[in-house]
Amino acid sequence: MSDQTTTQMMRAGLNLIGQALTIFDQDLRLSVANRRYQEMFDLPDHIVEIGSDFADAIRYLASRGDYGEVGDLEEFVQSRTDQARAFEPHYMERQRDNGQWISVEGSPLRTGGWVTVYTDITQIKQQESLLRSEGAKLEADLFTRSEELAETNRSLAATIATLEETKRDLTESEARARMTSEMTPAHIAHIDRNQRYTYSNRKLSEVIGSPPRSIIGLHASEALGPEAYAQVGPMFDKALLGEPSVIEIDLQDATRRIRVALTPDTAPNGAINGAYVLSMDITAEAQARAALTQTRKRELAAQLTSGLAHDFANLLTVILGLQGKLERIENLPDVARDAITTTKAAALRGGELLDKLSDVSGRRDLSISAVSIDELFSNLTNLATAALPDGITIETKNNDITNAVMLDHGFVQDGLLNLILNARDAIGDTGHIHLSARLRGTVWIEFIVTDTGTGFTEKALQSALDPFFTTKASEGSGLGLTMVYDFAQMSGGRVRIKNQPSGGAVVTIQLPLRFGTKTTDPGMVLLVEDREDLRLQTREMLREMGHSVIEADNAEEALTLVQIPGISHVLTDIMLGDGMNGFDMARNLLTTGHNMPVIMMTGLPADDPIHQQASAQFPLLKKPFAAPQLAEKFQEVHA
Question: What is the value of pTM for the model shown?
Fold first, then answer.
């Protein structure tokens, strides 16, 4: 049935009822009026036209005398208009100047405006008058009270109807609020003054681990567990004293980062009834934040050192040139030739230092690909063995990481090799080096290098990651561990150093965990692109590569489609119009346990913050691209 037919049927039905009905919107414009309304008040056509002004109707009726003597007409119209704008449910009975009695029952609408029903009660009033005159033989008070009761009953019926409508509104509002709370990717709760939960959605287990599913009535220490409560408990005490706070805590041996916001529940009289609690898992955000911070540090360092390095390089060139001229002078004393040789060696050493400084401070984007831990360790063993003396052995252990992991292969290999060579220097002639890899939950992968050397000194434990700090005197640049730390920070990870109780050093590189795949077989690709023309073009490229394709034009739709079994890759643009962007969508996939490879597409410049965050964690394909570049990026993911 068409909307026009439905409207005609509704209008015909309203015209059949014996009461007059009007609906005015929130702007005091007539939206609906039946024929009885015009007939009851004998109104001209322009007053009952849809869209006509409420004030015009009042002005017409008042000027005709419907409201009796009104004095200043415009002042009266303005007064009635102001009352209408502050509309409240009401019931009233009034007599018109022609002797007609009408009842007026008004009720507000949820969308704004109000509906009013006008009933001709002239006959009822005449009957009441007749009963009053005929009842002179009876108690006059009995009839008066009966009349009042009848009017009260009519008013009460109108009030009950309004209350029922309000009750339905409240029920719907409560249901929407509950649904919104459960769909929010955060734990939302309320505690009373005794730190017992009076409300909670069902997200606590997703945020902090596996506490009891139902926590209503539990004390916060019991619901959160000892690790979380030890950090949050003091903030609860402050919130119950009226002090709001936002903190970030580490859980599960710093593998999860949680943000907790506490807001006091303050009554109108100033009393504190408890506190509202909002908790979110921001592990992925912390990883991206660390990567972005390190990238900015690198850019700043590059700005500070580029000019100095350029001038220093020119100076070294001049020194080497002059020493070359001096070296060609005949009959130089041996002492002079030794000085020239030493000066040249120092200048060349300065050049090497400049190269390493450039590696640390210069811009380098991560090149993320799928890395097999077994193959990585095999290659590292071959490289390290050639540089280790016969008295030093090396052992590697992969703790059941069977899937490929998305890493920058070159950075990881260089960093671990640097740690192995540092361990070699600390051991001396004989000893052992152990390299292992393990998973920490679903968030991190850790590489751990231990040795049987002398371990870190107290000063080294404090400063080993600082640029130019070295314990190798003139033989060390002091940039090796700094480069490892820099790589970890760019990746959204961290580096930890300590000594073993039995002696020897322990260096741990902790990196964000994302699984990849080593297969190059065609798969099912979820393509997320908001521009239809680009989506069509990219889809054809993927199909030519042998992949089947599922498409989405926004992140929310993609998060629904990713539940389909068999999806092997996600190819998404970073910018997806309104709503969630592709980078946030990819991080959402990680936090919900979806570990298929994600490839980003973007036309953003390299210095854009979102471009930098995305490239630090995901393979990035720059627009515009052709089929060979797309195939190469898929091959890189599987390399």
Answer: 0.40
